[in-house]
Amino acid sequence: MRFIIFGVGAIGGSLAVRLTGAGHEVIGIARGRQLDAIHEGGLTLRTPMGDSHARFACTDDPSKIGLRPDDVILLCVKSQNAQDALERLASAGAGGQPVFCLQNGVANERMALRHFDHVHGVSVMLPSEYLKPGEIYAFGTPHTAILDVGRAPSGHDGVDDAVAECFKQAGLVAYVRDDVMAYKYGKLLLNLRNILVAAFEEESDQTPWLERANEEAVAAYRAAGIVWHDVGWDDPRREVHMSMGTIPGVARTGSSSLQSLLRGAGSIETDYLNGEIALLGRLHGVPVPVNAVLCRIGRKLVAGLLEPGKVTNADLQAELASAERARSGAIASPMQAIAHEL
């Protein structure tokens, strides 16, 4: 079994170092300065338990690999980049290989199923950061990750068992699940805060908005008949396997969304996190104004119209009011046109 890791950032990079260290063959697909750093000196994973270093093959495009039937593809790019990655894999000849989706959110598995028969979901609890080329920071201790693995949309097979065993050999905690998407929907609730961490400076300012965002999400889940498992900070597995530790000389930045902004990535995952709740609400008639507006905040942060860590409660209130005026106007205009015709 050979692992093709598409996206060697915080998640993919952590797995690349761990799997290589456990003796598994790894090929990364990366870009820019991260690809250059891996070519020049490999990749370093820094954790509370110490540092690990690995050298592995890495390229910028799957067409340069020469895909094999025994490859397992770990899709670790952000959700907003997943469609491009999947199309590039398909163009490179991927077809029968299993594809494991390790992103936040629940949209990636559906995207992958448009291209591939053997799609698997992975709910990832791996608090990590990638800000500097050639280095990944993972803050979990004594294990850096807890991974729930299974077929998408449901069930499991021998590949799930084999991949979970490889993760365990690499020192990670892994479980095979028949309902992996329920774990991913649970993780989505936790990730609704990512944009709030990126936007607000003070955690006290985030809390009321996070509560409202979660209330909307739960109402949308129930309306859609979605089942989810709690994988938040109250998950008892965290106490046993993965508490938050410190890395000497490293201050934790925060959410993956904030990391994207600080790296100048040019995009953010909010439309696949809070945007998923906005989608469910619109499909099932559930009001989701806070999650919808948080998507607008994300786009303004990417565009430089707002500054990370400087968004205020007044800014968010103004966005909510603006969105409500726009929504009311959009509803009124067609009705006025119909009344005029009559």
Structure notes:
With 342 residues, the chain is an alpha/beta fold. It has helices at 10-21, 32-41, 82-91, 108-113, 158-169, 180-191, 194-199, 203-224, 236-241, 256-262, 274-284, 289-303, 313-341; strands at residues 2-6, 25-29, 43-47, 50-54, 57-59, 71-75, 99-101, 119-125, 128-129, 135-138, 140-142, 146-151, 173-176, 242-244. It has a single domain (2-311), classed as NAD(P)-binding Rossmann-like Domain (Rossmann fold, 3-Layer(aba) Sandwich). The chain has 13 helices and 14 strands. The strands form three sheets. The protein has an eight-stranded mixed beta sheet with strand order 5-2-1-6-7-8-12-13.
Task: Tell me the count of domains.
Answer: 1
The CATH topology: Rossmann fold
Q: What distance separates the N and C termini?
A: 69 Å
Spans where pLDDT lies below 50 across 5 or more residues: none
Mean pLDDT: 92
CATH class descriptor: Alpha Beta
CA-based shape? globular
Instruction: Please summarize the sheet with the most strands.
Output: 8 strands, mixed
Side-by-side strand order of the widest sheet: 5-2-1-6-7-8-12-13
Which radius of gyration do the C-alpha atoms yield?
A: 21 Å
Helix content: 40-55%
- Total DSSP E strands: 14
Structural class: alpha/beta
> At CATH's second level, what is the architecture?
3-Layer(aba) Sandwich
> Strand-and-helix sequence, N→C?
EHEHEEEEHEHEEEEEHEHHHHEHHHH
Q: Count helical runs.
A: 13
